Amino acid sequence: MSTLPAPSPGGFCEQAWDTTKALREAIVRHPFNMALTQGSLDRERFVFYIVQDGRYLVGFAQALAAASTKATDPEDAAVLTGSAHGALVEERRLHAGYVEEFGLAESEVEGTVTSPSCLAYTSFLRASAFTDEYPVLLASVLPCFWVYQHVGSTILDTAGDLTDHPYRKWIETYADDEFADAVLAARDLTDKAAAASTPETRERMTAAFVRSTEYEWMFWNSAWTLEQWPTVQWVGQRP
Questions:
Q1: CATH classification code of 12-226
Q2: What is the DSSP-derived secondary structure letter of residue 103?
Q3: Nearest to 186 by CA among 71, 93, 92
């Protein structure tokens, strides 16, 4: 599946997607994703991304698990629980495959410092899980689903033959039908929650969606720049 159906007209997701159009286009055009599309992304940047994304997925899964406890509909809770499991198991299996392929030692991965952008993003999601009402939390986690699928499908549509593409597995994971179905389910839950919310809550949902999308750009950018803590000269590298 290269593209998703358009969001429901007049729903929260349609409005939020339109609000972040320019930012989303900047993510697709980011040098990291352009190089990923072309297969020219260097190993150091991709390894940095893979290690940081593994850290991110833990916080993302925790936020999804928290959302499942806040859902009042058991079926909705089951969807969120399944998504949390997928983040921890299925996607991390992809990351583990690349760690093995690149010959990274476990000590090297565990000893890598969590980047400022990764820590900021996961801290935002954990704070939302702890303090925000259910609809706002859904809006906070939705960009990770949706933006990744959008980037993956865009790369799939433009990269051409993937037979010898070095990042074929990554592209196919985020552009396949199974992941698209997860995005559609997350969108449906968010639109459902927004429809039952007050205008004030919908405003907070929009703010959360935009902020998470900003963090998405920052995360890609941190991998491109191999982001380090600016204080490392005084305190050294700490995991």
A1: 1.20.910.10
A2: T
A3: 71
